[in-house]
Design a protein that fits this description.
Helix content is about 45%, strand content about 20%. With about 425 residues, it is of the alpha/beta class. The strands form 3 sheets. It has a 5-stranded parallel β-sheet, sandwiched between helices. A 5-stranded antiparallel β-sheet has the order 10-9-8-13-14. Strands 6-7-12-11 form a 4-stranded antiparallel β-sheet. Strand 1, helix 3 and strand 2 form a beta-alpha-beta unit. The longest helix has 20 residues. The structure holds arginine.
Length: about 425
C-alpha cells in the first residue's frame, strides 16, 4: 500500500516493489495520446525497465489523428503501437443496445463514456493474449469510474492479467506530470493546455475538472464543442425524421445509412440547434458526487425518439415494466459491471421488447430542444377508431360506468376505513 502524501515525488521516481518489477517485462498501455498516457509511456519503460506497446482504439473521437498518435508512440519508444478502428463494433454492439435500453444513468447521462469501456477492455485483453503480453496499463485516477470499468471488465475476461494503474498507485498530479513531460522532452500531449479532463467518442463528449468542479457555476463557453450555445442557434426550426428497425435507427430523413454515419450526421444537425447539452451532478461508483458536463446531441435525439416509439408499440403494462429493466441495465453499465450475467439477462428482455419497435418518428429541433412532433408505426397500438371523439368511435362509453365502480372499489373502501379511525 502506498500513501500518496508521504510518497509524492516531483520527479515521479518511486520505490517499486522489486518482485512486481521483475515479473513485468512487457506492458500493453491503453494510450490516447493525452497527458496521462503520454507520461505513462515513458514512465513505465523507465521505472519498470519493461517494454511498452501502446494500444489506441478509435471509437469515433474527433481528434483521432490516429496515425499521429501511432507515430508519437513509436518515437517515445513503444515496441508496437496498435491502432484499432472499433467504430462499427461500438455502434452496432454497444450503442445499439443502449438505444434499445433507453440508456440513461440517473435519468440524464447517456452513458457515452461508460459503454465504450467494456469494449476497449475486451479488445485490449484480446490483443494482450495474441501478443503474449501479461500486463495492461491504463491512465485512470483512483477517484473515477473508468478505473473500475476497465479493471472489473479485465478481471472478468482474463483474471491472470496484471493491471497497472500508475496514476492512481502513485497519485500523480497534473503538475507532476507536466514537470515530467518537460524533463523527459515528451512532445506536448494534445490536452496539456486544456483545464478540463475530456473523454470523447461517437456517442458523446464528457467534460470534467477546472471551474466545472463548482456545481454552482455556469459552465463557460469554452467547454462546448459539439453543441452550439442557444444564443447562436438558427432562428428557424429544423425537422428530422428517424426510421427505426427492431429498436435501432436505420434511416435519417430520406437516407438509409449505417449507425456510425447516422450518429455523426445527427451530431452535427442537433448540435447546430443547441440540442444535447447536459449539466448534471451524478453519483460516482466510488461514492462521491461529481459535476459533469456532457455533449450528446445525437444520443439526446435518438433516445427521445426511441422511447416514444417503444411506448407507442407496447402495452400499458409493458410500458410500466420496461423502465425498471432499463434503469437496472444503465446502472450496471455505469457501475462497470457490463460482463455480469445479469446484463445478458436484462438484454434478453430488452431485445424481445424491441422486436416490435419499428416505424418513424419526427422531431423538431429548435433553440436547444428536440421535441417529438409525430410518430407512425405498423406495430403501433394506437387505434383512431377507439380514441376519436367523432361519431364513428367504436369505444363503448356505457361500459365505463361499471368499470369505474369496480376500479374505484378498493380505494373507496380503504379511504373510508382510514377516515373512520
Ligand atoms: N463521469 C463520466 C463517466 O463516468 C465521464 C467520465 C469521463 N472521463 C474522463 N476521463 N474525463 O462515465
Amino acid at each position: 500500500m502506498h500513501y500518496a502524501t508521504t510518497e509524492k515525488k516531483e520527479n515521479l521516481i518511486f520505490d517499486l516493489d522489486p518482485e512486481k518489477k521483475d515479473n513485468i517485462d512487457h506492458v500493453l498501455l491503453m494510450y490516447s495520446g493525452g497527458l496521462d498516457t503520454s507520461v505513462l509511456l515513458t514512465w513505465i519503460q523507465d521505472q519498470y525497465e519493461a517494454e511498452v506497446s501502446t494500444f489506441t482504439i478509435d471509437v469515433g473521437q474527433r481528434e483521432a489523428h490516429l496515425d499521429q498518435v501511432r507515430d508519437k508512440a513509436l518515437k517515445l519508444g513503444a515496441k508496437n503501437a496498435f491502432v484499432v478502428d472499433a467504430k462499427d463494433e461500438f455502434a452496432e454492439d454497444y450503442i445499439a443496445k443502449s438505444i434499445k435500453a433507453n440508456g440513461l444513468y440517473q435519468d440524464s447521462y447517456p452513458l457515452s463514456t461508460a459503454i465504450a469501456r467494456p469494449l476497449m477492455s475486451k479488445i485490449a485483453v484480446d490483443y494482450a493474449k495474441s501478443e503474449g503480453i501479461s500486463a495492461i496499463a491504463h491512465g485512470s485516477t483512483g477517484k473515477g469510474n473508468d478505473q473500475v470499468r476497465f479493471e472489473a471488465s479485465i478481471r472478468a475476461l482474463n483474471d491472470s492479467i496484471t493491471v497497472l494503474a500508475p496514476v492512481r498507485e502513485w497519485d500523480m498530479s497534473r503538475e507532476m506530470e507536466l514537470a515530467y513531460v518537460e524533463e523527459k522532452n515528451i512532445p506536448i500531449p494534445v490536452d496539456s493546455e486544456s483545464p478540463y479532463s475530456i473523454d470523447e467518442n461517437l456517442w458523446g463528449r464528457s467534460v470534467e475538472c477546472g471551474i466545472l468542479e463548482d456545481p454552482a457555476e455556469e459552465p463557460p463557453e469554452n467547454v462546448h464543442e459539439l453543441v452550439s450555445p442557444v444564443e447562436e442557434t438558427p432562428d428557424e426550426p429544423e425537422y428530422v425524421e428517424l426510421e427505426f428497425k427492431k429498436g435501432v435507427p436505420i434511416q435519417l430523413n430520406d437516407e438509409e445509412m449505417g449507425l456510425v454515419d447516422l450518429i455523426k450526421k445527427l451530431t452535427a444537425l442537433a448540435g447546430k440547434h443547441g440540442v444535447g447539452m447536459i449539466d448534471t451532478v451524478e453519483d460516482r461508483i466510488v461514492g462521491l458526487k461529481s459535476r459533469e458536463i456532457y455533449e450528446c446531441p445525437a444520443a439526446t435525439v435518438i433516445l427521445k425518439a426511441h422511447e416514444e416509439l417503444e411506448k407507442y408499440c407496447s402495452t400499458r403494462h409493458e410500458n410500466s415494466f420496461k423502465p425498471l429493466v432499463d434503469q437496472k441495465w444503465a446502472e450496471m453499465i455505469y457501475q462497470g459491471l457490463a460482463f455480469d450475467p445479469l446484463v445478458n439477462d436484462l438484454e434478453a428482455y430488452i431485445e424481445k421488447v424491441n422486436e416490435k419497435v419499428e416505424g418513424n418518428v419526427r422531431l423538431k429541433l429548435f433553440k436547444g430542444s428536440a421535441t417529438v412532433v409525430g410518430r407512425s408505426s405498423e406495430n403501433g397500438l394506437y387505434s383512431h377508431s377507439l380514441a376519436t371523439y367523432d361519431e364513428e368511435s367504436t369505444f363503448d362509453q356505457s361500459s365505463s360506468e361499471g368499470f369505474i365502480d369496480i376500479w374505484s372499489l378498493p380505494t373507496k373502501v380503504g379511504f373510508n376505513r382510514e377516515k373512520s379511525v
